[in-house]
């Protein structure tokens, strides 16, 4: 054999360079003999040369110790580097052949949590995107699909892999997955686990065995996830006609996990925070998240697994579509308007932030160094918005017909965005060439509108413009579905929601036959992911807040009033406008409105959102001033509502805890009321609720209300005493302290918490609970002395050696640095340079920091 050469320098991979592999895979047999530091992986892979692109056998492989290698039973010449194993075409048999190899790996020392690793005594895997190459030599790319048979040998009682169980005995189990799949969907689990079991009968009458596997002690946190799984299975049959296709569906909860969850065929692996739920330990928000993520991973069985991506540039093909599907599911389970508002809040907070900074990239990127850095809000959330726009443009019927054609035509294949869109072009006869730009053009379009009324005609004139993003200086006009409605002065709707299709840089739409000038409700349901600017006075906003029939826009008007109020407070030192306070009070006390909606309307724009708004208006945001104004407005609201808060708090008791839309909506409004009330009642109501609460939503909610009012020291200690044994609850304990820390104390509090016995940087959930919360505490992170920046940089420098993925992800805390003043910019630049200077910095973090520096 030729020996390992010097480490390969990180390379940039380009979409335009895609080429089919030299070899396809037919079947794969794997035998794992598990041992913490010396697991043996024996592979037998049937390869078939690709007649259309003949060449060397090129396999990926990283951090593997190769013990033996044979082709058709014979030893051959091969070359190994730290990333690849190559057998020259000349040394290969002429037709199909069997490749056999044995490697040794060390799951216990795998702190990157990619490949095969150990978590709380169990073995588990995470292979997406390119983790399988840390398990054995393989063509680790999604267009190579094979049928896997897996044998697991271990004394641990539960041994799982993909597909259906074939046979098992003492110390071993065999699994066979009849569906061919790429290696990123491979999974293996071994541990001392308990199954929460149920079953589901599919639409064609097939019985499926369902299990959620957890560690001892977590059995009582599985029922909600199981119900969500069954609801997802039913929903995908009813809405998309998609049936499950194996005898068994397993979910496993894992404590140490970089992301939320993973859709491995028949064996979904979840971050325990995204599957475990009980009323005593989980908030309503957690229940909602669990429901959505269970659905998301289950829906991947068709959008991702049966039909997968040709290459990783097509990631949004499965992720955007699957997010869209889980959003629709959650809306059906709960409330569409409330879900939509929550989606837009997330989109603006994460995707708009990304799209308007140095990390902006197209939904289908054109290049990457480390693909894990592209599991972003843009690929996921903007990817989902594109599906929603497509549906708006073609209509429901054509949307479902296009999906049906896609499932039919591409089942069992690895495909592209072009393949997906071709189905809709065929079904509708439309030319989708311009629409396809949504996948290639980065940046958030700015849409502005002017209104004119003459005779009986009302004209809306729209202008769109997308600002430059890294690598894309000039932008073309996008196809924008703009949903509008018109409302008469007496509040009646004279034009129900109508979708205008904008394709030009500037375009007018006229509505005739109107008796009087109407008020326009524009971009209903947030029909396109754009930033809308509209010259509209506070009176019109208040009118729409009161009368708009579109719940999203009704909420949006309240939000804009809040934003204007805060901007005036920040920049002109004004007192909050009385009109705004009155309009908000009207919503707060309107019993005819959904409590969840009222809570959302009461919520104030985040400090980060205000900073971006100021920056967009050509100003330099001052984090301390933003913080002070927001606190002042909270106090003003509390005093303005003082006469109604105590009664509302009492009335909104939802009774016996049920994590449904109704109960959670009431509690959400109740917690908003409580956080204001705590500013004026010396914390009495919150202390009372903290003592009596029988569910985590109200226990954590009352603690947060106290901390937000500068109180809660004792409650924090008793919370710890009650919950120190529960990791997921302890994540909240860490997070709440950092989230509510006053700006000048945040860094100190974080430093102290990292010394706490229960802090563990190796656990991504715990690390994020502290440092993710620091990054989200806007004024604390941006404290004038730069202490927040330094603390985060120190932590990232240490974490990078252990876990590059989570490190790179948290670097996004710095992505907005260009918004701020020169002092802050230079302090941040210093920290970024310090990270970059670390010897052996991972390519994940190197790529992120380099892009952020720009
Ligand atoms: N496909 C998974 C999901 O969306 C995400 C896994 C990504 N993991 C990673 N390490 N990049 O549910
Ligand atoms: Zn996904």
From TrEMBL:
GO molecular function, one term: metallopeptidase activity
Domain of life: Bacteria
Cofactor entry: Zn(2+)
An annotated GO BP: proteolysis
InterPro entries associated with the record: Aminopeptidase_N-like_N (IPR045357), Aminopeptidase_N-like_N_sf (IPR042097), PepN_Ig-like_sf (IPR038438), Peptidase_M1 (IPR001930), Peptidase_M1_dom (IPR014782), Peptidase_M1_pepN (IPR012779), Peptidase_M1_pepN_C (IPR024601), Peptidase_M1_pepN_C_sf (IPR037144)
Catalytic activity: Release of an N-terminal amino acid, Xaa-|-Yaa- from a peptide, amide or arylamide. Xaa is preferably Ala, but may be most amino acids including Pro (slow action). When a terminal hydrophobic residue is followed by a prolyl residue, the two may be released as an intact Xaa-Pro dipeptide
Domain Aminopeptidase N-like N-terminal: 57-185
Positions of the Peptidase M1 membrane alanine aminopeptidase domain: 226-438
UniProtKB keywords: Aminopeptidase, Hydrolase, Metal-binding, Metalloprotease, Protease, Zinc
Pfam families on file: DUF3458, DUF3458_C, Peptidase_M1, Peptidase_M1_N
Domain Peptidase M1 alanyl aminopeptidase Ig-like fold: 443-534
EC numbers: 3.4.11.2
Residue stretches in coiled coil: none
Annotated ranges, domain Peptidase M1 alanyl aminopeptidase C-terminal: 540-853
PANTHER family: PUROMYCIN-SENSITIVE AMINOPEPTIDASE (PTHR46322)
Family in the record: Belongs to the peptidase M1 family.
NCBIfam families attached to this UniProt entry: pepN_proteo (TIGR02414)
Name of the protein in its database record: Aminopeptidase N
Species whose genome carries this gene: Aquimixticola soesokkakensis
């Amino acid at each position: 054999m030729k020996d390992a050469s010097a480490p390969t320098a990180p390379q940039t991979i380009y979409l335009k360079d895609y080429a089919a592999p030299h070899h396809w895979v037919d079947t794969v047999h794997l035998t794992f003999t598990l041992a913490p530091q010396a697991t043996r992986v024996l592979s037998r892979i049937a390869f078939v040369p690709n007649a259309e692109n003949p060449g060397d056998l090129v396999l990926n492989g990283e951090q593997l110790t190769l013990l033996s290698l044979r082709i058709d039973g014979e030893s051959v010449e091969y070359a190994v580097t730290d990333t690849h194993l190559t057998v020259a075409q000349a040394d290969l048999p002429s037709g199909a052949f069997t490749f056999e190899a044995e490697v040794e790996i060390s799951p216990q020392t795998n702190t990157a949590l990619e490949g095969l690793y150990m978590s709380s005594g169990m073995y588990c895997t995470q292979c997406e995107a390119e983790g399988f190459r840390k398990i054995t030599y393989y063509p680790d790319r999604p267009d190579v699909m094979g049928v896997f048979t897996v044998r697991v040998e271990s004394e641990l009682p539960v041994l799982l892999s993909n597909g259906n169980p074939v046979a098992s005995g003492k110390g071993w189990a065999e699994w066979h997955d009849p569906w061919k799949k790429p290696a990123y969907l491979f999974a293996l689990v071994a541990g001392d686990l308990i199954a929460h079991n149920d079953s589901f009968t599919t639409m064609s009458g097939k019985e499926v065995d369902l299990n959620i596997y957890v560690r001892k002690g977590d059995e009582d946190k599985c029922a909600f996830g199981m119900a969500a799984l069954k609801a997802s299975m039913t929903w995908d049959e009813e809405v998309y006609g998609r049936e499950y296709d194996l005898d068994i569906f397993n979910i496993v909860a894992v404590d140490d996990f970089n992301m939320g969850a993973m859709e491995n065929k028949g064996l979904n692996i979840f971050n325990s925070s995204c599957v475990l739920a009980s009323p005593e330990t989980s908030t309503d928000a957690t229940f909602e998240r669990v429901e959505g993520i269970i659905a998301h991973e289950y829906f991947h069985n068709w959008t991702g697994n049966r039909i997968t991506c040709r290459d990783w540039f097509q990631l949004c093909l499965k992720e955007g579509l699957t997010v869209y599907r889980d959003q629709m599911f959650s809306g059906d389970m709960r409330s569409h308007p409330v879900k939509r508002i929550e989606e837009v809040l997330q989109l603006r907070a994460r995707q708009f932030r990304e799209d308007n900074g140095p990390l902006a990239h197209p939904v289908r990127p054109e290049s990457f160094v480390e693909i894990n850095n592209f599991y972003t809000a843009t690929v996921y959330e903007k990817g989902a918005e594109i599906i929603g726009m497509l549906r708006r443009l073609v209509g429901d019927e054509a949307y479902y017909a296009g999906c049906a054609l896609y499932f039919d035509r591409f089942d069992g294949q690895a495909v592209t965005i072009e393949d997906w869109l071709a189905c809709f072009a065929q079904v509708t006869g439309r030319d989708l060439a311009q629409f396809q730009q949504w996948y290639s053009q980065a940046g958030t379009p700015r849409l502005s509108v002017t209104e004119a009324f003459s005779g009986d005609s009302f004209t809306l004139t729209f202008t769109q413009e997308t600002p430059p993003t890294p690598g894309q200086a000039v932008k073309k006009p996008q196809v924008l579905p703009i949903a509008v409605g018109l409302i008469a002065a007496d509040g009646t709707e004279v034009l129900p929601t109508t979708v205008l299709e904008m394709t030009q840089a500037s375009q007018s739409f006229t509505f005739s036959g109107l008796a009087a000038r109407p008020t326009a409700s524009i971009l209903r349901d947030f029909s396109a992911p754009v930033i809308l600017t509209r010259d509209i006075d506070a009176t019109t906003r208040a009118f729409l807040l009161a009368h708009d029939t579109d719940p999203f826009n009704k909420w949006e008007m309240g939000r804009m009033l809040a934003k204007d109020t805060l901007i005036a407070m920040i920049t002109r030192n004004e007192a909050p406008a009385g009109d705004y306070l009155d309009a908000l009070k009207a919503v707060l006390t309107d019993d005819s409105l959904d409590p969840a909606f009222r809570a959302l309307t009461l919520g104030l724009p985040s400090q980060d959102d205000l900073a971006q708004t100021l920056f967009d208006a050509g100003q330099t945001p001052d984090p301390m001033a933003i913080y002070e104004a927001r606190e002042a407005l909270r106090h003003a609201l509390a005093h303005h509502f003082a006469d109604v808060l105590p009664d509302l708090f009492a009335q909104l008791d939802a009774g016996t805890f049920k994590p449904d839309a109704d109960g959670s909506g009431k509690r959400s409004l109740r917690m908003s009321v409580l956080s204001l009330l705590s500013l004026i009642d010396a914390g009495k109501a919150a202390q009372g609720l903290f003592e009596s609460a029988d569910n985590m939503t109200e226990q954590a909610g009352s603690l947060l209300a106290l901390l937000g009012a500068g109180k809660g020291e004792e409650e924090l200690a008793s919370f710890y005493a009650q919950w120190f044994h529960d990791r997921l609850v302890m994540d909240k304990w860490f997070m709440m302290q950092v989230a509510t820390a006053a700006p000048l104390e945040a860094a100190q509090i974080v430093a102290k918490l990292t010394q706490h016995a229960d802090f563990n940087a190796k656990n991504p959930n715990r690390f994020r609970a502290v440092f993710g919360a620091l990054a989200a505490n806007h004024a604390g992170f941006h404290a004038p002395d730069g202490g927040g920046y330094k603390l985060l940089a120190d932590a990232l420098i240490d974490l990078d050696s252990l876990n590059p993925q989570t490190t790179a992800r948290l670097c996004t805390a710095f992505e907005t640095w260009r918004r701020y003043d020169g002092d802050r910019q230079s302090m941040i630049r210093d920290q970024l340079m310090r990270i970059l200077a670390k010897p052996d910095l991972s390519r994940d973090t190197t790529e992120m920091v380099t892009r952020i520096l720009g």
